[in-house]
Amino acid sequence: MPQLHGAVRNGAAIIHLHIRGHNGEECLDTERYYEAISKLKQIFPTPLIEITPRGTDKSAQEPVKFERGNMVKISSAMWRNKPELKPEMSALNLLTQQSLFS
Questions:
Q1: Which helix (H) or strand (E) holds 62?
Q2: Rounded to whole angstroms, what are the CA distances from 43 to 39, 63, 88?
């Protein structure tokens, strides 16, 4: 967090957010996203928040995993449908065609 404070103090306009679990593993828990986004908005009201979540579509007949680089699935549960908490940006992290099909 000290690095983030310094970056914002020095003019950073965008906060790029990834959520990690307790052991540093990748985390897709919408509750953790909600907590982080809520806290960031309170502490840093000015910078835009950008999130890059991967996800799993459990509504599909067969589970579909959205891998980093090809699709981004964003659930409104991450900000509990509160417009004031909705991240202003979402990164696509697209791969090259060669990377996708090799």
A1: none
A2: 6, 37, 16
- 10 Å Cβ neighbour count for 99? 10
How far is residue 56's CA from residue 93's CA, in Å, rounded to a whole number?
A: 17
Question: Residue 52: what residue type?
Answer: T
- Alpha-carbon gap, residue 56 to 46, rounded angstroms: 31
Q: Which tens digit of pLDDT belongs to each residue from 6-60?
A: 999 999 998 888 888 889 887 777 788 888 889 999 999 999 888 765 544 445 4
Contact by Cβ (8 Å): 73, 57: yes
Rg (CA), the chain: 15
